[in-house]
Amino acid sequence: MKCKSMVERATLAIFLFLLTASCSDSPAPPPPAPGASSTPTAQTPSPQGGFSNIGKRTDTSARTSQAHSRKTPPPDPRVATFVGLTAPTNPTWRWEPPKNNMRVINWTVPAAEGAEPAELVISNFPEAAGNTREANINRWTSQFYSGDMPTEANVTEMTVATMPVALVEINGEYQGMGGGWHKENYTMLVAMVDAPVGSVFIRLLGPRETVDQHRAAYMELVDGLRPAP
Known about the structure:
By secondary structure, the protein is of the alpha+beta class. The protein has 3 helices and 11 strands; from the N terminus they run H-E-E-E-E-E-H-E-E-E-E-E-H-E.
C-alpha cells in the first residue's frame, strides 16, 4: 500500500508539472493599441514661437538668451546673426559686449548733432505668462511720463519673412524702469518679432533726434530679418 501511495504521488506531481508548463506557453497579450498606452509621451513644441503661443508651451529649456549672447563683435559690421536670424546692420553702430544675460546683442548708436547717443538692443526671452504683447506695451509706456494723460503707444502690424512683427513707438519724457531718469524728448522703437525661437525684441532707445537720424537704418534691420543660413 505504501508503494502504491508513492506511485500515486509521483503521478500527481508529473501531471501538475505538465499542466503548469502548458499554461506558461500561452501567447503574450497583444501590445496596447496606439494612444492607449498609460506611459506619458513627450510633447513636441510648436516650431513657431512667440506671442501667439504664450501660455501654451511647456518647453522653455532652449529659450534663454544667455546661450546666444554674442561676446565678440560680429565679423562683418554690416550683418548681425542672432538666435537663428540674420539682419543687415549699420557699420556706424558701435558694438558693445552685452550688459546682462537678457541681451543677445547691443550697439551704441552715434548721436545726432547736439544730442546724446542712443542704444540698440536685441533680446530673446523665454515664453511666459507675463510675456504678452499687451503686458510689454504697458510696461514700456509706464516708463514714459505724460502728466495726467496716459502715455500712448503707436503700434504697426507687419510681416517680415513670414514672421509677424508688431512695431511699437513711444515718445515723451523717458523715466526708465525706476522712474529716475527724466530724459526729455526721448523715443523708443521696439519691434516685437514672433520668431521660430520665440519672442525677439529689437529696441532702439534714445533722444528723438538721434533715433530719427537712424530710423531708416533701424527699419532696414527689421525689414531685412531672415532665417540664418
